[in-house]
Specification:
The chain is α+β, with helices and mostly antiparallel strands. It has a single domain, classed as Glutaredoxin (3-Layer(aba) Sandwich), CATH 3.40.30. The chain is built from ten helices and four strands. A four-stranded mixed β-sheet has the order 2-1-3-4, covered by helices on one side. Helix 6 links the parallel strand 1 and strand 2.
Length: 205
């Protein structure tokens, strides 16, 4: 995390938190969008609407199947600080569909973790403070200490293991191909959210 993030004005975070929704409210929004064949975001294309529909299915599956180890549960349940996890996302984002249910599983285990969601394209100022290699990549989790309101960490747009895979492929091939993106989906399915859990636990240190 860079110095800009640490010194970010609290007003930007507070403004976004005031517009935020719970994870369950976000799921409700996605369900409505699917019924309307629509999507979140500034672009309303058929392709993005189709991704939203696909992501609804992914999130439903992960909501039912993500499992945490006893060791992970113990660490989460024993966390005594108070933290807000504010996540920037859009309904069409494939990575978000795999990751957001995992965040929810972790947050559900400790009432001191407040999981809130905002849409990227409706929160430009916030998003621009948390770019990834200059890009507006999502999902992006911003960990905020409840007492000080300071940013104490970030996570995303992918688990660290997946980020390494993506970076290595880009370095070798220059860009991500449709074939690699399919491989990445298979990686998420095989990983079952465990790499994301590991990264999220590091935020609780």
């Amino acid at each position: 995390m860079n110095t800009t993030e640490l010194n970010m004005p609290n007003t930007t975070i507070l403004d976004s938190l005031n517009k935020s929704m719970s994870y369950q409210e976000y799921i409700g929004l996605v369900n409505v969008l699917v019924e309307r064949s629509s999507t979140t975001g500034n672009e309303k294309t058929e392709a993005l609407a189709n991704y939203t529909m696909l992501n609804q299915r992914r999130m439903r599956r992960w909501d039912k199947t993500v499992k945490l180890s006893d060791k992970a549960k113990a660490k989460i349940e024993n966390y005594s600080g108070k933290m807000t996890w504010l996540v920037l996302t859009e309904s069409w984002c494939g990575d978000a569909a795999h990751i957001m249910p995992v965040i929810n599983k972790v947050a559900e285990l400790n009432g001191n973790i407040n999981y809130r969601v905002v849409l990227r394209d409706e929160n430009d100022v916030l998003m621009n403070q948390f770019l990834t290699n200059g890009g507006r990549s999502i999902p992006k989790l911003i960990a905020i200490d409840e007492e000080s309101k300071e940013v104490v960490g970030t996570f995303g747009p992918r688990p660290s293991v997946a980020t390494e895979l993506v970076n290595a492929y880009k370095e070798k091939h220059g860009a991500l191909t449709p074939e690699f993106k399919e491989d990445l989906q298979r990686w998420y399915n095989k990983d079952k959210g465990q790499s994301a859990v590991s990264d999220l636990l590091n935020l609780l240190n």
